[in-house]
Amino acid sequence: MTGPPFHIHDRGYKSIFSFKKLFSQLIEGYVDTSFSSNLDLNNSIKENKNFILKEFDEIYSDILYTVPLLDSNNDKVLYLYILTEHQSGNNHTMPFRLLNYNLEILRDYFKNTKKKIRERKDFLLPPVFNILLYTSNGSWNVPLNFFEKVDGGDIVKEYIPNLRYHLIDLSKISNDVIREKNNTLSSVFLFENIKRSKNKAELLSEVMTILDKEEDEEISITINKWILIHLQTEEEKKTHAINNIDIDKLNRMEGRKMIESLRDQFIAEGEAIGKAEGEAIGKAQGEAIGKAQGEARIAKNMLKANEPIEKICLYTGLPKEKVLKLKESDN
Length: 331
Hints:
Blueprint: H1 8-16, H2 20-30, E1 45-47, E2 52-53, E3 59-60, E4 63-68, E5 77-85, H3 94-111, H4 115-118, E6 128-134, E7 165-169, H5 175-181, H6 184-192, H7 200-212, H8 217-232, H9 252-304, H10 309-316, H11 320-330
Parallel strand pairs: 5-6, 6-7
Antiparallel strand pairs: 1-4, 2-3, 4-5
Helix pairs in contact: 1-8, 5-6, 6-7, 7-9, 8-9, 9-10, 9-11
């Protein structure tokens, strides 16, 4: 069964990783395994299939690639399955969900293999490598192995499916590390970190600069739309000009202009906040100076009336040393 993805954010990633170039940048930049060098990413093929599980409220699998393995004498392939998880917290059903996704992938492979072939003694199922891309705030703390979610799994570990997934947790990857990759996918991951950045305008300018270098117009348009859709779903969308724009109809230049206008809005908002904070600090400092001057004036008047030092300290709140200095300055 197939259908539209359930979450607008995940739909964006499905579109982004549908480009083999961006898929390859993800694997080359963020997946370091013993077999990474054996992946023939240039000849990878995106499978146009979804694997829907009714048990999980029709949450859809994200994207699946078939990747040939280099140095293989019998045309071996690896199924590389990418699932993005964009939500407010950790999903502790993930290991079980991935086990079911994998079974659906292998069941599909088995079903589409000729009966004579799959019943042969030498018939083998292809390996599936699972990647979870976690983009939410807060670290991912769900077990990476399925058996850890089984009661008593450590006791009978050898008899439980040994499914493990590779985690890419953006909350643990710094902007400097992302910049070092120096590729188009960096614009996507840097934008993801805008919500954790104090200077949104500066980071958005950096994202725009990266996208300007992308030669593939379709890739640039897709990422522009993803950025605008993401901003449109944020709390501040009511104040943004994109609220009534049909994003799907924007071309590359129009999309860039919209992002640029939002960048300028972030700058204006930052300046307004800075001005308000400056005014608040100035007011507080002025009040503090005025209070200090008032206390000193009262103390001087009490000194002229020959009031005791202890009484002056009690009435003004000034320390004894300050009152004595005021007394000396008047003499």
